[in-house]
Design goal:
With about 575 residues, this protein is α+β, with helices and mostly antiparallel strands. Among the domains are: about 10-140, Acyl-CoA dehydrogenase/oxidase, N-terminal domain (Butyryl-Coa Dehydrogenase, subunit A, domain 1, Orthogonal Bundle); about 160-275, Beta Barrel (Butyryl-CoA Dehydrogenase, subunit A, domain 2), CATH 2.40.110; about 455-570. It has helices spanning about 10-20, 20-25, 35-55, 60-65, 80-90, 105-125, 130-140, 145-155, 280-315, 340-370, 375-410, 425-430, 440-455, 460-470, 475-495, 505-530, 540-555, 555-565, and strands at about 65-70, 70-75, 160-165, 180-185, 190-200, 210-215, 225-235, 245-250, 260-275, 315-320, 335. The strands form 3 sheets. The protein has a 5-stranded mixed beta barrel with strand order 4-5-9-7-6. The longest helix is centred in the middle third of the chain and has 37 residues, at about 280-315.
């Protein structure tokens, strides 16, 4: 009953009509040969793979899960074959540099691919989801010898990769990590320790797995300044098995087809990536790539939830809707999509989903500008904006996705609570995106404390100025200008107030990030409405109507965020244990 249809028309609208990406690619020599037709063909093929190959495995993976026996993990039926098809088609190499075996397509096209893969089968996409981050980390920080030996296999997808950070006593506080690395005479290291929550730590999709592991060399400084990054393969270059193993699989709420492993390193051989005691530089490359991909998980879940809820609402016939009798045709009942409560539900989902798609794709395009644009000043500005938008994409889009999945489940009524219709799996699967790769609360702190307060709001001021300049001269734009000003004013007030109250930005960070997300989507919807005004098709009419719906019903929620930010000037009360 659960289906996925690639939203190709909306993807085309965002990439070609709204963001005009083909024209911008033409300004970058790296993408000079990537035109609209090329990108469209790639996206259509990606949609076929997502809907025809991995979507049918979504429920299978949820019901079967993964199994662990004698240290070996078996993935659900069909996962291995689907991954082999993925590699043979060249999808892992899509946005990698041609000099190392990649296809050299833009990050924005890769973002479309991963949105669709996440819509179709989030658990399956957990396996290749870290490949691009591993590629970027190795490309930027590994020695030429390591790059030559491992990078081609990672780029092609022949070998999958992991990101080994978390330990039982150290979740988000990486400074507490205890895994040790002892230098050897041949230049390698012996790693000893246990990592938990390792996605794809062991599986049967590839013969080798490249583990990227944070560990501490003896006599290293305390805290995060003493962490180093190591490449630790499952299979050594001579074909022998490295001394690491999977000691357990987590029994999870969702994404059950993804193997979440407890990994033990027992003197495992690894090689330093980057400089000693500066491992976070290499790991943050992976983490930042992963955070945008988690934001795309949010878009993916929101899309599949909305698609299926809308289809169900159009088919489900119940009591009469409260419409004028003159519009009726003597029906005893109506499809529930005609009921205002259901329409509100679905319109809210659509407004957040399609607006979120614009934000995610534009952030991915800024990555292209930061990496590939020939003008250094453009690269610098794009890098600044990506640093601001990445935590917003991760947190805002995944918060919205989980809320939309729950809203979609409500459309189904009692049928949404049982397994057969698929929406309850979507609710369970979408929940993790708000937690891993840094909880959404940490994303909010990253945005406000580490990005905005740290530089006195300079980068944010530049972003808001750009957003104001890109607003078209329309009636809807006049309603958004004040909200951009409110965002800027709230920022300036916080910058002043936090000087005497260092806890203040931590108290209001969540509301600050949501305020930013709501205003960013409003700016995107105003631009979309202006573009859609030049056409009269039903698709463009729906765009204009959804833009107005967003400004009428969703943007006012930014006022609540502002009120809560003002309330945050008051210290939070302490929590005391209940009396015995």
């Amino acid at each position: 009953m659960w289906q996925y249809h690639p939203p190709l028309r909306d993807i085309q609208f965002v990439t070609e009509e709204l963001l005009n990406l083909p024209a911008q690619w033409a300004q970058m020599p790296s993408f000079a040969e990537v035109d609209a037709d090329t990108a469209r063909q790639v996206i259509e093929e990606a949609g076929k793979f997502a809907s025809e190959v991995i979507a049918p495995l979504n429920a299978v993976g949820d019901l079967q899960g993964c199994t662990l026996k004698d240290g070996q993990v078996t993935t659900p039926n069909g996962f291995r074959e689907a991954y082999q098809a993925f590699v043979q088609a060249g999808w892992p190499a899509l946005a990698c540099d041609p000099e190392v075996g990649g296809q050299g397509l833009p990050q924005s096209v890769n973002a479309v691919l991963h949105e669709m893969l996440n819509s179709a089968n989030h658990a399956w996409n957990m396996y290749p989801g870290l490949l691009h981050g591993a590629y970027e980390s190795l490309l930027a920080h590994a020695t030429p010898e390591l790059r030559a030996q491992y990078l081609p296999k990672v780029v092609s997808g022949e070998w999958l990769s992991t990101m080994c950070l978390t330990e039982a006593h150290a979740g988000s506080d990486l400074g507490l990590l205890k895994t040790r690395a002892e230098p050897q005479a041949d230049g390698s290291f012996r790693l000893s320790g246990t990592k938990i929550f390792i996605s794809g730590g062991e599986h049967d999709l590839t013969d080798n797995i490249v583990h990227m592991v944070l560990a501490r060399i003896a006599d290293a400084p305390a805290g995060t300044k003493g962490l180093s990054l190591f490449l630790v393969p499952k299979v050594m270059p001579d074909g022998t098995r490295n001394t690491l193993r999977c000691d357990g699989l987590e029994k999870k709420m969702g994404i059950k087809g993804s193997a979440t492993c407890v990994m033990n390193f027992e003197g495992a051989t690894g090689w330093l990536v980057g400089e000693a005691n500066r491992g976070l530089a290499g790991m943050f490359v992976m983490m930042n790539a992963a955070r945008l991909h988690v934001g795309l998980q949010g878009v993916g879940h929101a899309e599949s939830a909305y698609q299926n809820a809308l289809a169900y609402a159009q088919e489900r016939v119940q009591m009469r809707a409260p419409v004028r009798e003159a519009t009726r045709q003597n029906a005893e009942a109506d499809s529930i999509v005609l009921h205002p409560a259901v329409r509100h539900n679905l319109l809210r989902q659509r407004a957040l989903l399609e607006g979120g798609r614009v934000l995610a794709y534009e952030t991915a395009h800024l990555l292209d500008l930061a990496e590939r644009h020939p003008d250094e000043s453009v690269r610098h500005v794009a890098h600044d904006e990506v640093s601001l938008l990445t935590p917003i994409c991760k947190a805002f889009l995944t918060d919205n996705a989980f809320a939309s999945a729950q809203a979609a489940q409500q459309v189904y009524g009692g049928h949404g609570y049982i397994h057969d219709h698929g929406i309850e799996q979507c609710v369970r699967d979408s929940r993790i995106s708000r937690i891993y790769e840094g909880t959404n609360e940490i994303q909010a702190i990253d945005l406000l404390v580490r990005k905005v307060v740290a530089d006195g709001g300079v980068k944010l001021g530049g972003l808001i100025t750009r957003l104001q300049q890109e607003l078209p001269a329309t009636e809807l734009a006049e309603r958004v200008h004040p909200w951009l000003a409110n965002w800027q004013q709230a920022t300036q007030q916080l910058l002043q107030q936090c000087k005497g109250d260092p806890e203040l930005p931590y108290r209001v960070a969540d509301d600050y990030l949501r305020l930013a997300g709501l205003v960013l989507l409003a700016q995107g919807w105003v631009r979309a409405e202006a573009v859609a005004a030049h056409a009269s098709s039903p698709f463009h009419t729906a765009k204009r109507e959804t833009a107005r719906y967003y400004l009428d019903y969703l943007l006012p929620e930014a006022g609540l965020c502002l009120a809560r930010i003002r309330a945050g000037q008051n210290p939070l009360p302490q929590l005391h244990p209940p009396p015995p």
